[in-house]
Structure formats: structure tokens, C-alpha cells
Amino acid sequence: AAARLAAEQEVENLSGLSLNPEKNIFVVRENRTTCLMAEFAAKFIVPYQVWASNYVDLLTEQADIPVSRGAEMKGKCGTNESELEISWLEQAYTLKLFFLKEGHNTSRGQEAFWRLSRIQFTYDTGESTYFKDAISPGKHTASTHQLSALVTPAGKSYECQAQQTISLVSNDHQKAVQLLLSEVRVQPFDISADFVFSEEHKCPVDQREQLEETLPLILGLILGLVIVITLCVYHIHHKLTANQVQIPRDRSQYKHMG
């Protein structure tokens, strides 16, 4: 059964299709149907320690680790739980994303949502591409705690162009590792068409930026409409008053009327 499941599952790294060299595209398919899709640009900021030039003091350096375009991947799709695992540079770095779908009681009744429930990042400070002369090199794991991110109504995809920062805590002396995400489009459940995202659910930051972009246009249209209405009212009023018979107030002028 396990062999049959493995044969029926396909994973594809389609990052080469993106015009942004920092953006990755991952697809998981089961039974020839897309069950998970994820697009994002991601980078980890990992602090680590090196010796100072006097070999007595310690200095804190920072490694900026992007997710490689040539990353290997695994995926797991489920009714209420899905996972995406990405590894690169001979598994020196591994990113695991865990998704959960659940119901919430709202004023409109029971509604289903999905969210990113956990992130786990394994990194090797002995890998020399991003870590230079790290003290006590070795593998470490950074994880989130009680994460509830990318919350999206069931049946929709999550979209956010703005950069988001998620904090992880490493077992390397509890160091804080930062995950920077941008240009995100993710859907781990209920994909209705193969290789096609469902209707997007925009993040609050994108919604606010879109409102800020359209608000001046809306205000300009309203102002223009008010000016047009004012001119029309003035024109109608002027026309009506011009057509009215002017009754003289001086009674001496009545004799000229008739």
C-alpha cells in the first residue's frame, strides 16, 4: 500500500517558471490531481557566533539563507492536515511547513478555515556557503510555538505580496531565527482544478495597501460628481429664475402693466 501511494504521488519544483529568481513554486499531486500548491520568496536570518580577532571575545554574525531554487521537496496531503518539506544544499537546510484545517464557531454558525500551524527549520552551521567560521558547528533546529498564520477560509487560497516576518526559536541557545516571506500564494486543501489556485483571500496588509491606492481615486470621483451636481443645480435654478415674470414692487409702475 505504501509503494502504491508513493507511485501515485508526484512532487514538482516549478520554480524555474517564475520570473522572480527569489521566488519558489512547489506542487504536490496525488492520484494525478493537485492537492497542495505553494509559491513564495523566503529567506531565513540566523544569528551565530564567531571568534573575534583576539580569539578571546565572541562576536555575533548573521547568516541570510534563501530557499534554493534547486531544492528537493516532499509533500503530504490530507483532509485536515497537510505538509510540505523542502531541502537544499545536500540537506544542510530543511524547511517543513505544517497546515491544519479546522472549524470555528462564528455569528454565522460553524465555518471552516485553514492555517499554517507550525514551521520547522533545520540548519547546519558547519555549511560554509552561509556560515563563516561558526563556533561549534553542527545541526540545529528552529521551530515556531502555537503558530496561527496565513489564516484563510476553507476552499480559498492565501495571497500576500507584502513581506511578513515569522519568528522561530532555535535549540542553539534559544537564538531567535527570522523567516521573511513575500509574494506568497498558498493552498494546502480543496484545490478544485489541477495546477490552478482557487479564489484568493488577500492578507490584511495587501487589502490596506489596495485601499490606500484606490482611496484617492474614489475621493476624486466623489469630488468631481459633487462639482457636476452643483453646476447642474445652479444651471437649473438660474434658468427657472430667469423665466419668472418680475413683479415690480413700486406700485407706480402698475399703470404701465396691461
From TrEMBL:
Keyword annotations: Cell membrane, Cell projection, Cytoplasmic vesicle, Endosome, Glycoprotein, Membrane, Signal, Synapse, Transmembrane, Transmembrane helix
Biological processes annotated in GO: establishment of protein localization to organelle
Topology of the protein relative to the lipid bilayer: Single-pass type I membrane protein
Annotated Lysosome-associated membrane glycoprotein 2-like luminal domain residues: 21-191
Domain of life: Eukaryota
Classification via Pfam families: Lamp2-like_luminal
Single GO cellular component term: growth cone membrane
InterPro entries: Lamp2-like_luminal (IPR048528), Lysosome-assoc_membr_glycop (IPR002000)
Protein family: Belongs to the LAMP family.
Subcellular compartments: Cell projection, Dendrite; Cell projection, Growth cone membrane; Cytoplasmic vesicle, Secretory vesicle, Synaptic vesicle membrane; Early endosome membrane
Protein name: Lysosome-associated membrane glycoprotein 5
Described purpose of this protein according to its UniProt entry: Plays a role in short-term synaptic plasticity in a subset of GABAergic neurons in the brain.
Transmembrane spans: 215-236
Gene3D superfamilies (alphabetical): 2.40.160.110
